[in-house]
Every structure is written in C-alpha cells, then in structure tokens.
Design brief:
This protein is an alpha/beta fold. The chain is built from 13 helices and 17 strands. Helix 7 packs parallel to helix 8 and helix 8 runs parallel beside helix 11.
Length: about 450
Amino acid sequence: MTVDLVVRNCTVVTPDGRSPDSGIAVEDGTIVAVARSGRLPDGDQVLDGGGAVLVPGIVDCHIHNREPGLEYKEDWESATRAAAAGGVTTVVGMPNTDPVIDSPEHLELKFERGEASAHVDFQSYAVVTSENLESIPDIDEAGALGFKIFLGSTVGDVPPPSDGEILEAMERIRETGKRLGFHEENGEIVDHYTERFRAAGRNEPIDHAHSRPVIAEREAVERAITFAEETGAKIHMFHVSSGSAAKAVARGKGRGVDVTAETTPHYLWFTEDVLREKGNVARIQPPIRDADEHEHLWRVGIDEGAIDCIATDHAPHTDEEKLVEDPFGNTWDAISGFVGLETEVPAMLTFVDEGRFTLEEWVSRHSRRPAQIWGMYPQKGSLRIGTDADFTIVDTDLEWTLEDREELHSKTRVTPFEGESFTGKAVATVVRGEVVYEDGDVVGESGYGTRVDVD
C-alpha cells in the first residue's frame, strides 16, 4: 500500500500523551494511520521529521485579517501566509472589517475572499449589534462559526448593544447552538477614564493602559456570565488580559455557566513595563497588565485552569498608525494591536522549555480546546483517523531571536516581540495533507485554504 504522504521519525504529541519514533500517513487529505515509523506504509511523498515533535495543527481562533475593506493593513492571503509560517493550520477572522460582518451577505463576502486566497483553512465570526438581532438565525444558516459582541471601544468603533439587546441576542444565539464571544471591557468605564486622562495631558503609552483599568475587564466578564446564567447561552471571553478577569471566569465555571476563555502570548510574556520600553508598539486593548495581574493570570488562568485556550488577537496596523518612528509619541494618536501569528508557537514552546506547562498542556490549549470550543473538533485539533490531516512539526530545542520584524510574512509587521528570544519554532506546517510551509519557506499555494464547515 502506498499513500499520498508519510511523515516519519517524530515524537507525536497530543493532549493524551506522546509517542516517540512515530509518524502519520495521509491519503486524500485525511489521516489514515498514526503509528510507529516502522509500521507506516510507503508514501508518494515522505518527510523525515529528524526527531522533531509533531502535534495536531495549531488553531488560532482570534485573528484580524482585515479583509474586506482594510486590505492595506492585511488580507486573507498575507494573514494566512503568516499563519502557515507560524505553524498555524486554521484561523478564525474577526468581524470588525469594512463592511462589518453583520449579515449573511457580508459573511459570504468574507468567505469568498478567503476561498480565493487563503493558504490555510479558515472561518469567521459575525458581529452582533443593535441593528441585526433578527438576522441572527440567517447569519447562523450562512455558516458563521460563532458570534461576537464588542462591549467596549475598539478598532472599527463597532457600537455595543444595550444590556437588554444582549440578553435577547443570547436567547437567539442559544437557539442556534453556537457560542457568543465578547470583547470584554466596560465601555463606559473606559470612555470616562480616557476623557479624564486626555484632559489632564496624560499622553504616554502607559497612560493608555491605565485608562482601561482591570475593573473594566472584570465587570464586563461578570456581567456577560450573569446574563449567560440567566439565558443558558454558551459564551466565550476573548483575550483575557488579567488574573482578576480569569478569576471571574473561574467563578462562572464554578456556577455551572458554559463560559470559556482565551488568553494570548503577549499577556503571558510581557508586563506593562513593555509599554515603557517599547512604547506604542505594544499598545493593545485590553492592555498588557502590571506584574501582579500578570502573575495572577498565570496562576489562576494557566495553573488552575480558568483559561481554556491560546489565541493571538493578531491585529496588523501600518508603521504610521503605530507611530513606529516616534513610539513614545502621543498615545492618543496611535492605534491598538500588533501581529502575532508567527510568534505564538515560539512563545508557547519557550514557556514549555521554562517548565511553565508541558507539551501536552500546550497542545490542549492551542489545538484541541479552541477546536472544541468553536465546534470544529475532531475535524480540526485532533490526530484521529479519518479527520483532516492538519499537523505542525516543531523543533523544541531551536534557540533563536526575532532580530528583524521584516522577516515576518504579514503585510504589516509591527510587533513588540521584535528583539525577543525564543526556544522552539515551527519547521513544517501541513494542511489537509499538503505541506504549506517547510524549511523556512511558505510553499503552499494561495487559495488552497478552505472554509471549515460547521453544523
């Protein structure tokens, strides 16, 4: 028997354990065998892992690919090229584009653009506003992975629904069986302090962070959980930045609410000191927190398990928008967000190297759990026989530094991870049996990626 692709001589790692000197056989884009290297069939194409680690394909359930409408920052092609280079096999795009993804027609436009140019597989959320509550069933039918509400100000200025409208949205979304995620910052608190800080001439990058205090995040988490407890909706907290917010998630889980949560590499890697060191390059919403909240996030979110998964909030902007030439310029003239698709796997592997968690725990949070949370498992996020042959091969011992952000593959490349050193990196990325990244090069074709079907 000869199959399309065989990968040998790897340590295969899943959340359930690891198997040395093993590999995978692929036929017609699906996994047909996971076994010891010597028991695998012959392949038309054979990859020798050289003892590297092979894991289920990384799923990033939170990126801003900026298409449609904002392609000068990023598009499906460039975002998924970066994903392939970063070891990410599935991405989920956010809805704050132009137009916003708030209708079946706009969702279909986003899907069509992805089908035309993506390198890896993809999906998209739809936004919920005051104007489209009655369209929720139609948006669900059009194939949205899930829904999102922006509770506070963010890029694109998507206005939040009222609390009553949020309750109604939860009831409607509950009927679809889909999950509702939140940008969880209390907009009234943030707007109040932003106005006060600006009036007082507090214009440093650290002032932007302090204008969005932890209480704004924690209150929004607790309010969403209370509403979900009332309605029975499934909810998700995007980009949890603080230990206090993670603790609120833990309390909700303890009450039996179906609440899941993600955090990002930048919240786990940096403290707010990065704003004093790198300025507006590190400006993001919610902001990177102080050392106490950072350690609290690790303890409650990671060690105690309040955080379910890892994502990036990959958010490209131009150098001009980020004030790269004057990074400590007036922060109110800058914009929030930065790229992350090519540094998320290295950051997580560095934490593994430091003993912050195991390889198995990393795979659970970065592959299995995001796929489960958003209804893509086991087709994505597993190495089961008969599922999509998505996997990532990583060198866990490679020590390297991101010396120059221009090495990255996104259209715009501002990142506070420039100059940071890592232990570990993706060396090959396979999507549905096709090698899309290998030996430092994106080798997959634009348009190969396809929309992930969900029920």
